[in-house]
Amino acid sequence: MDVSQELADYAAKHTTQVLERSQPVQVDMGLLAAFDNTPIDPSEYSSDLDAHLLQLTLTSTQALISALFALPTTPSAEHGPVIRPPVPSTILPREKPLPKPKEPTKWERFAQAKGISHKKRDKKEWDEERQEWVARWGRDGKNKQKEEEWATPVKAGMEADQDPAATARAERKARTAKNEKQHRSNLAQAAASSSASSRRTAQQARAADLERSMLVSKSATASMGKFDKSIEGEPKSRGVKRKFDENVPKAGWKGEKEGLLGVLKSVESGLGRKEKRKGETKEGEVVVRKAVRYHDREERLKAGRGGAGGGRGRGGARGRGRK
Amino acid sequence: MSMLRTIKPKNARVKRALEKREPQAVENEKTAIFVRGQSTSEKVRKAMQDLYALKRPHAINFSRKNDIHPFEDASSLEFFASKNDSSLFVTGLHSKKRPHDLVFTRIFDGRILDMVEMGIEEIRTISEFESPKSSLGARPLMVFHSDLFDTHPTYQQIKSTLLDFYNGHPVSDIPLNAVEHVISITAGPISDTAPLPRVHLRVYTVKLLASGSHAPRTQLTEMGPSIDFSIRRIQTADEEMMRQALRRPKLAKSDVEKGLGKKRKNIETDEMGDRVGRIHLGKQDLSKMQGRKMKGLKVRKEKPVSAGEEE
Lengths: 323, 311
Prior knowledge:
heterodimer; A: mainly alpha; two-stranded antiparallel ribbon; B: alpha+beta; Rossmann fold; 10-stranded mixed sheet; 7 helices; about 30% strand; Ribosom_reg (chain A); ribosome biogenesis (chain A); Ribosome biogenesis regulatory protein (chain A)
């Protein structure tokens, strides 16, 4: 029986021969990965694919193993020598965004602004009467001391049937409820601000920016955009409200008087008057700009009267304006 | 995200479980979900079974069919991701237009990051190779061959996806003899007939032989699966989303050295640089402790100490 062929096949399969590479194999030990960036040889690839793949894998694996074995090891009883690979050089995307720092509470913001440093309160409190440390709250807490007093001195102005223990308990419960409420509002605010910042992508920010500038430009006409044609899907302007002066000013009538006098003064001095354009109005000359505009207007009026439906859009718009 | 109601933890166990799902500075290993579309082929099922076997234990296999077409509507994938707290998907599909189809999807922050669609051309499963197999949960080595993985954007994405899939999670300590298998990814040479050459996936078991020098000699035996992929549709990541996903946390160097920033309780390094641990022992039961045995300490039951002894 001739087994030489089988032996040769086996040898080819279990080869440990390493290929020559034009570029050295890059190794990322942090991820236990190696990258062989040498182009694949088309002739080798098409002649015997599986053998070529094995050769390539062997080459890069050998490079990776050599790099890993060169790292310093620490002995361990269970697993033998253990290596600690460096931080990966290949950056892969995360599963979730980076954790956000905890949103400060209202009190924390206030303390920050005022420069109040945090004081850690002990859980226990010194009781002078009992001469021992007692819990501040909770079971046998000091905050329940008033409720558990066997006798309370009656103060002047106290009603006869008032239960001091019940009053103290109600006060304590109210404090707890208030704290609970503040805690909830802090949580709600933190949730709102974190969701607002994470959901708002760059695209959304750009869209909001465009909307804002569009609203600004629309209201920048003489009629504050009142008679402008509206575009389909146009954003509504929100938060713009007319302001009226008070009928009876709280600060007195002096302010109103001064305001009105100021208007008169500005009229007198010609403060709000439009500056005449220079170089257009010399005595006896035709103002070209005005002449052209006048001519255009005449033409348009003629066309509006004569044409059947051509000028309706414009006419309609003006008609609305006169109402 | 909005499909899931927000759960308010009612007890500490639920609270801990929910906290684990929140964004972490040092993340846990990504879990992959293997889900089949409405129609699949034998090849697709085989490939999914083997890719699942390689990814275990960080993998969930959905046994039922789901009407999923990731490139048309990925909302159900996003739903599965948030429900199972996982961020990798393999969807198996089969249609006349795209036979033997596998879609690799990555999720970031509950939304689709990118997708790679590949067709299975040739497949040999793990069971078809008569060779030793790697053990469950063993960490593979991964090797990539071809310059395309360095230069071609499509292949760069494939490389990133596959690397993320099997080796994306850096580990702090690795025993040297734990190296069991290597996953080899090779792209064919680019030519006029094949503008997008095939990608070959091979898995070999690694045997380390003594070589006389410090590094051992490597011997490889094919273990399977062996899959040849053709490249189909690609969906690249949104630039802004990718930028967010690639951000790294700032970790103190000592934390990284201690074990990639994971907080370890009760282990500290003292001023001398020695590691000091604090362990909790229960209260010792002193009542059963055997003290010194002496005749005089013996408790005599019959004859209690009486007044007569004083005399």
